[in-house]
Design brief:
This protein has 469 residues and is an alpha+beta fold. The chain has 22 helices and six strands. A six-stranded antiparallel β-sheet has the order 3-2-1-6-5-4, sandwiched between helices. Strand 1 (341-348) and strand 2 (353-361) form a beta hairpin. Helix 16 (255-275) packs across helix 19 and helix 18 runs antiparallel to helix 19 (322-336). The longest helix is centred in the middle third of the chain and has 21 residues, at 255-275. The termini are far apart.
Length: 469
């Protein structure tokens, strides 16, 4: 069989692929105009036609990034009212696109490319000022689809497409020449044709520009894309130092603060992937530990807690993303206080369970999918039951004879741990948990953990009811 070559040959092959979401749902979504009030009903109808899509949209809409109130959103119509038309439109669009590329058994190369795009989307969203929430959502989608041509090519499973993508990873500066070699068409031309064919909108055409004016969607997407490509090299690589300097200019941050933002967004990407039912991408995302391992050997200064606390207070002062604040809190405890394993478990009001959402430390990634605490599991007399009744922070010490009950799944060797309830008025917002991986905790760590828990409670209370970003 002759390999496809040239624009028309590749377009015909790609458009004949079994990707119904791209053929129908995505086009319908992109045609909706937020200025037309009737389109809110049309959007709800599009989502409700697919039970699986409805479930995913509601799952993402209930995530803390969009729903700060903690009150469960149970219908698509309520989600549009409470979260916003544009936000739900883009959640639906992203869910449909991700499902399209993950259907069947995607090959590793496609998963790697989609992971990079997903990570770039989360990084890009953080580059837009919080006040411009509409642009944030557009930038998220634009970065997700920056490499729409490569994703579509890999979905065909054609050898020439896979050779093209592999060689581009080795020689990114020669992308055009490599595309001509294997495809017979420049990848930029294919990107533009697919955007037009699938009616993805003018903002996507702007995002595809290699040389885009400063502050434009294209410039933000290109910066986020570079971060997603080079972050695995470590923060001290020449490219990442340049990228972080640009982040600092855009977000008015110091170099160190911009590096912390990039790291927080790397963690955010894993959480967001779980929210979009794209768990298969999580192992491929660069973890904080992997990124930091590429740097020169770190030497403690003794002021780590002060540095992280100041970062957290600055984020709070500028009313930044609640999700980013929650991540920063967990990192403050792990790196600033020196607590080996930390988790923030948020209350899922639908299942009435505490679900590990923000984690840091060895083996804690497993908690996201394997550990949860249902309120109905708690028994009178066990540690967590008594904690929730007293509403006080708990320091459970190794072998003190207390019944740790459901905490066993986090603390299998009955070591020291801290637990504190986080409340939003009279509602339980979540649990803050930390342990010493089987070792004793110290009085200093107890004081700093309690201070951080109090600050987190204040952050949550101040964020309640505010518009999300």
């Amino acid at each position: 069989m002759t390999e496809p070559r040239g624009l028309q040959a590749w377009l015909k092959l790609i458009l004949n692929q079994q990707m119904p979401a791209l053929d129908v749902v995505v086009q319908q979504i992109c045609q909706l105009d937020e200025r037309n009030e009737g389109n809110a009903d049309d959007l709800a109808k599009i989502v409700l036609r697919d039970a699986g899509l409805t479930t995913k949209v509601l799952r993402v809409a209930n995530a803390v990034h969009y729903n700060r109130s903690g009150k469960p959103i149970q219908t698509v119509s309520r989600a549009i009212i409470q979260v916003g038309f544009l936000e739900i439109k883009n959640i639906t669009l992203a869910s449909s696109l991700i499902d399209s590329f993950l259907q069947g058994k995607p090959r590793q190369l496609l998963l790697q490319q989609l992971t990079q795009s997903f990570h770039a989307a989360v990084q890009a969203r953080a580059l837009v000022p919080r006040a411009d929430s509409a642009k944030r959502e557009l930038v998220f989608i634009a970065a997700l689809l920056r490499h729409i041509g490569k994703l579509a090519l890999l979905a065909t499973r054609e050898p020439a497409a896979e050779h093209f993508v592999r060689e581009c990873r080795e020689y990114p500066d020669d992308e055009h020449a490599i595309a001509m070699k294997y495809l017979g068409i420049g990848i930029d031309s294919l990107n533009r044709e697919l955007v037009k064919e699938w009616k993805l909108g003018d903002f996507m055409l702007d995002a595809l520009q290699q040389s885009a004016p400063a502050g434009s969607v294209g410039a933000l997407v290109n910066l986020a894309d570079s971060i997603s490509m080079h972050l695995s090299e470590g923060l001290q690589s020449a490219t990442m130092l340049e990228n972080c300097a640009q982040v600092g200019q855009l977000c008015q941050l110091t170099l160190e603060e911009s590096q912390q933002q990039v790291l927080l967004m790397a963690e955010e990407a894993a959480l967001t992937a779980n929210q979009y039912n794209a768990e298969s991408l999580v192992p491929l995302l660069p973890s904080r530990a992997q990124i930091l391992a590429q740097n020169t050997e770190y030497k403690p200064t003794g002021y780590e807690f002060s540095v992280h606390l100041n970062t957290l207070l600055k984020l709070q002062r500028v009313s930044d993303s609640l999700s980013r604040l929650l991540h920063a809190t967990v990192i403050c405890l792990q790196e600033g206080v020196g607590l080996p394993r930390v988790a923030l478990l948020l209350m899922d009001y639908q299942s009435k369970s505490f679900v590990p959402s923000y984690v840091a430390g060895r083996d804690t990634q497993l908690w996201r999918n394997q550990a949860a605490i249902a309120l109905e599991q708690l028994r009178k007399g066990e540690v967590l039951y008594d904690l929730l009744r007293s509403e006080q922070m708990l320091w459970h010490k190794k072998l003190n004879g207390a019944d740790i009950g459901v905490l066993q799944q986090f603390l299998p060797y009955d070591g020291d741990c801290f637990v504190a309830p986080i409340r939003l008025e009279r509602r339980l917002f979540g649990l803050l948990y930390a342990d010493a991986a089987g070792k004793p905790l110290t009085d200093r760590q107890q004081i700093e953990f309690e201070l951080t828990a109090q600050l987190l409670t204040l952050i949550v209370q101040q964020s309640d009811g505010k518009a999300v970003d």
